[in-house]
Amino acid sequence: MCGIAGVIHRDGPADIGTEITRMLQSMKHRGPDSTGYALYGPADDNIVIRFVLAEPNEAGGFGMDERLEQNRSEVERRLGQLGAEVDQITSDTGYAFRASVKYRGELQPLADYLEDIPGCEILSLGNSLEIVKDLGDAETVDKQYSLGSFWGTHGIGHVRMATESDVDLASAHPYWAYPFSDVAVVHNGQLTNYHQWRRRLERSGHRFQSECDSEIIAVYLAERLQSGVNLEAAMKESLDDLDGVFTYVCVTANELGFAKDEMAAKPLVLFESDTLVAVATEEVAIRHLTNSENITRDPYEREVKVWQV
User: Fold this and answer.
1) Closest to 171 (Cα-Cα) out of 104, 121, 118
2) Which of 37, 86, 223, 308 is most deeply buried (CB count within 10 A of its CB)?
3) Does 51 share its domain with 200?
4) The pTM is what?
5) Which pLDDT score is estimated for 290?
6) How many domains is the chain built from?
7) Nearest Cα to Cα of residue 51 among 108, 114, 109
8) Same domain, yes or no, for 63 and 148?
9) Is 250 among the residues known to form the active site?
10) For residues 38 and 152, is the Cβ–Cβ distance under 8 A?
11) Could you give the dihedral angle defined by the CA atoms of residues 194, 200, 206 and 210, in that order, rounded to the nearest 10 degrees?
C-alpha cells in the first residue's frame, strides 16, 4: 500500500520540499505511519550528514535529554578525530540532526565510526543529498523539519504503511546507498531474491542498516555506478538481476530515474514537460503538483527512464 513520488526540475531549483509534501500528503491513505524525503539542494564543498541519535518514541524518556546531548558531543568529537571540520550541527527535534562538515576522507570509515555511538544511525551523507524521515504524515514531517524552506532541483518521497515491520525510523524510506555519496531509492513492491543479493553484496564488503529490500536496490545501483556504468544502464541491469514485483525511483546528485519490473503490476504515473518531470504511485499526487492539461501516462513493463538536472 505504500506510495512513492519523485520530482526533477530541469530549469533550475524550486521549492522542492513543499512540492513533494503536497504529493505525499495526497497519498496519505497509502501510508500514514511514516513519511520520508530524499532532497537535493545545491552541491557545495561540504559534506552534509543527516543522522538520528534515538527513535522518536524514545525521545523524552527518563534521562534521554542528557544522553542525547552526550552523544551529540561524541559525534562532534569523533568527527574531529577523523579530520572533519564541523561548520555546524543543528536539530529540529532533539533526536534528529543535521551536520555540515568539511571532510576529504572516505565516507565509509566516517559513517562506521559515527554509527558505533549507541543509538546513532546515519540517514544520509553527501554533498547535496539530505534524507529526512519521521513518523506521521507528510504535513506533520514537513512542519517538524521546516521543509518548506528547502530549495533544490530534485527529490523523492515515500509514505509507508507498516505491515510486516515496526513503525520506526529504521523501517522508514527512502534509503541511502550506504556508504556511497548522494544515491537514494524509494520502492513499492517486494524483492523475492533479497537474501541472495544481500549475501552477495555483503561478500563484496557492504553492510546494511536495515532489513528492507529497498536498501538492497540502492546499494546495488550505487555499486554499479562506482564501477563506471551509467544510471540508466545500471537500472536496466537491475531488471534482470532483481526478482519480484516492484517499481522503484532512484536519485543521484544530478539524476532521477524510475524502473518497473516485467510484470508492471505496481502502479506508477508519469508526467513530463520541457521543464518538469514528476512520477507518483497515483495521478492525484501529480495533480497536486501541476495544473497542466498535459496527459500523464502509465509506464509499461520493463521501462526505465532517467532525466538529468
Assistant:
1) 121
2) 37
3) no
4) 0.95
5) 83
6) 2
7) 114
8) no
9) no
10) no
11) 20
Which residue segment(s) compose the domain that 273 sits in? Answer: 3-39+137-308
Please say whether the dihedral angle defined by the alpha carbons of residues 262, 183, 108 and 35, taken in this order, is positive or negative.
negative
Q: What average pLDDT values come out for the chain (309 residues) when binned by 10 residues?
A: 93 96 96 94 93 86 85 97 96 95 94 95 96 96 96 96 73 93 95 96 92 94 96 98 96 97 93 94 92 83 96
Cell 546495488 belongs to residue: 220
Supply 214's cell numbers. Answer: 529497498
Q: Are 214 and 206 in contact (CB under 8 A)?
A: no
**Which among 11, 304, 20 has a CA at the least distance from the CA of 157?**
20
Is 144 in the same domain as 285? yes
Asked whether residue 154 falls in the same domain as residue 187, the answer is yes
**Exposed, middle or buried, 145 (CB in 10 Å: 0-12/13-18/19+)?**
buried
Sign of CA dihedral 86, 109, 105, 227: negative
Q: Is residue 131 part of a domain?
A: no
**Dihedral, CA atoms, 66, 72, 76, 78, nearest 10 degrees?**
90
Of 2, 120, 212, 250, the active-site residue reads: 2
CB 280 within 8 A of CB 270: no
* Residues 6 or more apart whose Cβ sits within 8 Å of residue 130: 37, 38, 39, 40, 41, 48, 50, 98, 124, 150
For residue 20, the model assigns a pLDDT of: 98
Helices 107-115, 64-81: crossing angle, 10 deg rounding: 150
CA-CA-CA-CA torsion sign (174, 178, 181, 185):
negative
Residue 174 preceded by cis peptide, ω within 30: yes
Q: How many whole angstroms separate alpha carbon 24 and alpha carbon 107? A: 31
Same domain, 54 and 181: no
SS3 220: helix
Q: What is the rounded CA–CA span in Å between residue 19 and residue 229?
A: 31
Q: Which amino acid is at 257?
A: G
In the chain, the amino acid numbered 227 is: S
**Could you tell me if 75 and 99 are in contact, meaning their C-beta atoms sit under 8 angstroms apart?**
yes
| The three three-digit cell numbers of residue 132, written as one number | 529526512
Query: Which helix or strand (DSSP H or E) is residue 114 part of?
Result: helix 107-115
